[in-house]
Design goal:
The chain has about 120 residues and is mostly helical. The chain is built from five helices and no strands. Helix 1 (about 5-45) packs across helix 3 (about 75-90). It is elongated.
């Protein structure tokens, strides 16, 4: 049986479009999750102050308790990134207009590298 050539093409377009939308939706939710985690850590650890009180080990303790259940995405380093992500973008609406998580991660690594080299 011969199919109308546009049927296959149209279905492939529908599939590709749905996949792209799903990826964008997951990425958006992931960015929002990281922001909320960073906010919660910041509020707990620093109680809204610029610097945490000496001796607070919120991130270390959270990492030890989250990693067994959720994996390496909750290491001390990652949780510190989530907190810093919140500090860079304290208003959620600015996230959507400025970047995705991969953009932040890249910029963060680039800035850290530049800072280390200048010292």
């Amino acid at each position: 049986m011969m199919l109308n050539p546009t049927v296959l093409s149209d279905i492939k377009t529908i599939i590709h479009s749905a996949r792209e939308k799903a990826i964008r939706t997951v990425d958006t939710e992931r960015v929002l999750m990281y922001w909320h985690i960073g906010q919660r850590i910041f509020l707990e650890e620093q109680e809204g102050k610029d610097r945490a009180d000496y001796g607070k080990f919120v991130i270390k303790t959270l990492s030890e308790q989250l990693q067994p259940e959720f994996g390496s995405g909750y290491s001390i380093r990652q949780l510190e990134r989530y907190r810093q992500f919140y500090r860079f973008f304290p208003i959620t609406s600015t996230l959507w207009t400025q970047l995705s998580w991969s953009h932040f991660s890249y910029r963060h690594c680039e800035e850290s590298f530049t800072t280390k080299q200048s010292h």
